[in-house]
Amino acid sequence: MGLFNRGSRPEPPSERPDGHDNDWAANGNGAANPLGDADGRKLVAPPAEALERAEPTPLEPEPAPREAEPARQEPEPARAPSPPPANPPQPEPDDAARLTAQQALAPLRQQAAPRPQASAIAEEPEGRAQIISFANQKGGVAKTTTTLNLAVAFAESGHRVLAVDLDPQGNLTMSQGIDPDRVEKSMYDVLVHHIPIREVIHDREIDIAVASIDLAGAEIAMSTQIGRERSLEKALAAVVEDYDFVCIDTPPSLGLLTVNALTASDKVIVPVQCEYLSMRGLVQLQNTLQMIRENLNPRVRIEGILPTMLDSRTIHAKEAVEILEENFGDRVFASRINKTVRFAEAPVKGMSVLKYDPDGKAAYAYRQLAKEVLANGNR
């Protein structure tokens, strides 16, 4: 008997030998038995080797493969605009929207008019000292160094000079060999307790009204005083005829002590380190001066802007000076104060750089500055 019995159609047994119902003709749901042919004849599975060798004979020809169609891109639903980032990225250096140094100083372009003629300035009483404040709210710009050395240069020219230390750090006081922690009376007592300023003046290379750390609390102590912005002006009134120049060193801020100095002053010299951030502070100082002129002291004006700590070897320093000259014109002094270790060494000896190294370049620079200021005052 062969693999397939085609001679007769045997009756299907009622039960399978294993005891289960016969499912060779139909499966449980009535579908054709996968192991039988269309006539219900039973098929015997060929050996496994034959299945592996036999080619599959599809019942229907397979469709020819089609090229893959590009996936249809459904239009994306409209998205709500995302909120701006809390910390937006900074513009790149070459971004046209980046704030340039020229733009940072641009608000002063219209204000930087030439120095007013002498006839346009309120006349000062004969024999009265010229009061000059040295101000810049940014620290570390050689403000104290300039106050002391320009004052000494004035004194070398035969002028009577008083230097006033209005900085709680007391650096001007220490630069003349006086310990601000050991002085019995200081500018704090002058401003708060209204003692005569003569009681805090010490005789050194120039006369100096000394400071102490107590000045750090002066603004709080003066906050309840009437006319507190004019405390220094009233104190200087007693000695203003004894000197040709009064040079005031201010703290690195635009607080009440600096306001007192500007209210008492005729002129302001602004030492500016030849770096971008130092120059940016000129905007705030200019605004403060405008308020002082409108409310307290109409005669105060900027005498000049002094480039300090200049390192002429760097391109940045040269560009900084060019920006100053572009925005302030002839208000920028022709004198330049270059970096030198002499400015750090002289205070250790308790003296000015003009005395410490009288023939050095630093001393020469401040003598030139003194001549420039004196020439401006004689215009």
What do these coordinates show?
The protein is an alpha/beta fold and 379 residues long. The protein has a domain at 124-377: 3-Layer(aba) Sandwich (Rossmann fold). 31% of the residues lie in helices and 9% in strands. The chain has helices at 48-53, 101-105, 143-156, 171-174, 187-192, 218-222, 231-236, 256-264, 276-295, 315-328, 342-348, 353-356, 361-377; strands at 130-134, 161-165, 201-203, 207-209, 245-249, 267-273, 301-308. The chain has a seven-stranded mixed sheet with strand order 3-4-2-5-1-6-7, sandwiched between helices. Helix 3 (143-156) packs across helix 13 (361-377). The longest helix has 20 residues, at 276-295. The model is unreliable at 1-8, 14-40 and 106-123 (pLDDT under 50).
Short structural description:
With 379 residues, the protein is of the alpha/beta class. The chain has 13 helices and 7 strands. The chain has a 7-stranded mixed β-sheet, with helices on both faces.
Arithmetic mean of pLDDT: 78
Helix/strand-derived class? alpha/beta
**Ends: how far apart?**
139 Å
Task: Give the overall shape.
Answer: globular
User: What is the CATH superfamily label of the domain at 124-377?
Assistant: P-loop containing nucleotide triphosphate hydrolases
Q: Might you state the CATH topology name of the domain at 124-377?
A: Rossmann fold
- The neighbouring-strand order within the major sheet is 3-4-2-5-1-6-7
**Sequence of secondary-structure elements:** HHEHEHHEEHHEHEHEHHHH
Largest sheet: 7 strands, mixed
Low-pLDDT runs: 1-8, 14-40, 106-123
The first-level CATH class name of the domain at 124-377: Alpha Beta
Q: Give helix % range.
A: 25-40%
CATH architecture of the domain at 124-377: 3-Layer(aba) Sandwich
